[in-house]
Amino acid sequence: MLYFLQQLLNGLHAGSLYALLAFGYVITNGVLHRTNLAYGPIFAFCGHSMILATLFAYDGLWIVLPLSILFGTSLAFGYAAATSSVLSRFVLEPLAGRSPNTVVAATLGVAIVLAELSRIAADTKDVWLPPILSVPVDFAPPGPFRVTLTVNQLLGVASVLCVISLGTIALRVSGFGRRWRAVSDDPLAAAMCGVDITRTFRQSVLAGAMAAALTGILAALYYGNISFGTGMIYGLKILFVTAAGSYSSPLRAAIGAACYGIGEALWTGYFPSEWRDGWMLAFLVALLVLRAPARD
User: Fold this and answer.
1) Which of 179, 203, 205, 201 is nearest to 190 (CA)?
2) Strands, DSSP E only, in the chain?
3) Is residue 41 a contact partner of residue 7, using CB atoms and an 8 Å limit?
4) Quick one: how far is CA 89 from the chain centroid?
5) Is 255 inside a domain boundary?
6) Cα torsion for 23, 81, 228, 254, to the nearest 10°?
7) Domain for residue 133, yes or no?
8) Residue 199 near residue 134 (C-beta atoms within 8 A)
9) How many CA atoms lie within 13 A of 25 on its CB side?
């Protein structure tokens, strides 16, 4: 039982990262209505940039680690804002009304560029952050088997819960949320009612990129390393999770992604880990085949 609880807690942390990624992806997809393969690479690019900037400040500028992390985090969010602006203005906006395959091909090109920029910046080497807030917190009485999460993991889960909760409230009550729902439902009708479609589109892409950047930062702080190709793997998982769950509700997509993360952790705890991604993705494909076509 304690072993199961430990795997469940591990899945809670992993699921929180998936949840935040899915939340941001649906905000962007709500106005794009096209498959965006650049979303996962933005997550990896920002996380990798945060690691490189933090290590540069810590080792090169001799700045204390907390301030180095703050420097790296600020740079990662800045890169996310710049990337989302370029992506929205020069890729997604011109192609939003074209064939879905056109957007897939264009965002795949953006994904390759971001991965290559990360690889070149790191000189094709893996760089690692030192362990950060790795003190374990017990969730069961002391015994031969400890059930723990680290302070880092707990802060990460709490951060994700806060962001998703505030984001959900903002989408329900704010002006941006009303405009986002209008553009997501019917862009032409929204435009006829005076909604600035272009502004809403860019704000949605920016919000999604910021969610991806925060996820990358939290993943970098916990794992200590993000590889160049990690973004495409995470992006495909989120793509399948949101397709099987909901493209219209960021909160539902986040809940589904959290369940997927918990499922991955339980699989790793009880079955061969090398088969995990294959079977989990096969499960999502089965849901896509069986789901009702008019569900959303």
Assistant:
1) 179
2) 136-138, 148-150
3) no
4) 21
5) yes
6) 0
7) no
8) no
9) 35
Q: What is the dihedral of CA 36, 189, 291, 261, to 10 degrees?
A: 40
For residue 88, give the DSSP letter.
I
R_g (Cα) of the chain, nearest Å: 19
Q: Is residue 134 part of a domain?
A: no
For 33-64, where are the alpha helices, taking DSSP H only?
A: 39-55
Q: Cβ neighbours of residue 145 under 8 Å, at least 6 residues apart?
A: 2, 3, 6
Q: What pTM was computed for the model?
A: 0.94
Helix (H) or strand (E) holding 140: none
Q: Tokens standing for 148?
A: 């723990």
Question: Are the C-beta atoms of 14 and 265 separated by less than 8 Å?
Answer: yes
Quick check: is 130 in a domain?
no
What gap in Å lies between CA 160 and CA 137, rounded to an integer?
Answer: 19
Provide the domain limits for residue 11.
2-124+150-290
Kind of pairing, strands 136-138 and 148-150? antiparallel
CATH number of the domain residue 223 falls in: 1.10.3470
Identify the residue whose tokens are 């802060």: 155
Cα separation, 172 vs 61, in Å, equals 44
Number of domains composing the chain: 1
Distance set, CA 191 to CA 88, 187, 195 (Å): 18, 6, 5
Residue 131 is given by DSSP the state: P
- Beta bridge mates, 150: 136
Q: What does the pLDDT read at residue 295?
A: 46
Q: For the segment 40-91, what is each residue's pLDDT rounded down to a tens digit?
A: 999 999 999 999 999 999 999 999 999 999 999 999 999 999 999 999 999 9
